[in-house]
## 1
Amino acid sequence: MLYHLLTPLADEITLFNVFRYLTFRTAGAILTALIVSFVVGPLMIQWLRAHQSGGQPIRADGPESHLLTKKGTPTMGGLLILVAMTLATLLWSDLTNEFVWAALALTIGFGSIGFLDDYMKVSKKNPKGLPGKLKLALQVSLALVIAYWVMRELPAPLATSLAVPVFKNVLLDMGLFYVVVSTFVMVGASNAVNLTDGLDGLAIVPVMIAASVFGFIAYIVGHVVFANYLQVHHVPGSGELAVFSGALVGGGLGFLWFNAPPARVFMGDTGSLSLGGALGAVSVITKHELVLAIVGGLFVLETASVIVQVASYKLTGKRVFRMAPLHHHFEKKGWAESTIVIRFWIIAGILALVGLSTLKLR
């Protein structure tokens, strides 16, 4: 909004020229989302607590300590991130950019599915929420629409191709099947973050780290000079997703203020599904889908632990981990929650650096 209101005045008022710069608008989006979170957060938490008798239902088969330390904590805190991120994005981005609207639509759409899931958990006081197949079907349906939308906006041959990191000239052209691939990336990222969200602060910091990396990638890929210098595929218009990613980081920082142990609010599926979807959407648009698997390797690891656990139990009747996802395994081993969270943050940071290095290794 500010971009459209103030950049036309830049010729008369030189100061307004800064609104043409993505870096300035990204910083503005971060600060705006952070301020909105600080202002809205206490009111929203108070409202959620008043309307959620008993807070988020805790799994009876989960770690025993959760029944004592997390009982009564309200959920749906992802609403705070969505509100802050959406307002900041609308305020600072170029609203004629289709990629911004596509990423925002997927994020809000997945957040709505998560909100419905959280509402059913709270209203029925049952940790299961929406039936899994229905939730997945809703996610896939929305992701297919967004994937086709993005494919229509991307230039050929990028529109139907999967870029391979490190190999600068490798594009795997998949034709219309790429819609399926990009849908898998967005839905997979969404559910991977959802599985990771099990301890105070565990998911939000790796999400912010990944969003920071992909904000940088979006800026590079959207800038023809930088893209050519680093020999990555240039995607015209994708630079605006740096603003979107910045808004996500700012909203995440604001949420972390209230989610830091002991959490005053949980993000719930409202937050985890939407944030994972946002990362997936940015990776698809910037043609760095495979890099997301590296940068978001912590989410991949958590998801893999669940898959291995289920497969092992069905095939052999034995469990590989004491409990899945992986963070619960370490809880069962006696690790302190803060130890698990901080060590997982460190892993997320290392993987982000590895993912960034793919920009230079060509």
Note: The chain has one domain: 2-357.
## 2
Amino acid sequence: MRVARYARYGAPDAVLELLDEDSPIVAAGDVAIRVEAAPVHIADLKCITGEPNFRMFPLPAVPGFEGIGRVTRIGAGVADFSQGDRVFLPLACGAWREEVVATASDLMPAPEGDAVQLSLLPINPPTSYLMLNDYGDLEKGDWVIQNAANSSCGVYLIKLAQLRGIKTVNVVRRASLAPALKNEGADVVLVDGPDLAARVREATGGAAIKLAIDAVAGDATTRLGECLVDGGTILSYGMLSGEPCKLPPDMVFLRDIRLRGFYTVRQFTQHEPHEIAAMYRDLANLVADGTLRARIAGTFPLDQAVDACALAAKVGEDRPGKVIITMT
């Protein structure tokens, strides 16, 4: 079995190795899964380089936060899965390897369809789904505003909002991104800037926007707050600017603008297991039938994981989509 592993922190081309290992033993209650595809996330790169707050796995470690594969071997006592069944890999299982062993009770069935697209389902689509469903008390006809709208989470959110009849204001850094987002169903696309709030009011007819979704932080948080109705909520789930969220005190105590942090795994704990399972079934069907699709910048075999990391590290138009490692 081949596996991509790093035993020390550093640049992927310096520390990431492709090794041959024995196939793992399948204990009672476990199954072995032949991995089909696994994404390369920015979080993977931060783990490999050992950035603060990302030294979460003991060394040596295998990257890969999510993926999809098929059951190949079954341990004693497992009745819910058979050989050949398709499943989503458990989160943070170290998916950049040809075979993963996991506890059967931790697995969710996966549908047939494009393995590359489905490999992205465990993290980003639930993030967008839960932000829309758990905050803002949104109803059909309401508006939501988000920045970094051309990200995978942003594109998923546009489509999920459209399916619910919720309208979106989508803030980006470059006007050239607007046509693609419009094609995804975005109602309004605006380039970020100091007069953002005035342009949002004009574009939405002065709509009372209750929810803003912030992946940028810094001054961008302030600009989103200026677009909200009094008592509105800003959900922070990223910091692409590298700066802390900035929210002026008068915006907080005079207008009651609220800043909330959003972390997908933590949000899962706010729901019963059957609710999470139902969400994944719905999202999987939407991915399988092509309703939800992520842009793909490139796919690489496992022995080109370093090249995959190099592409994933690029930003803007140099990486127009997600990067996927395929094992088949």
Note: The chain has two domains: 2-120+294-326, 124-266.
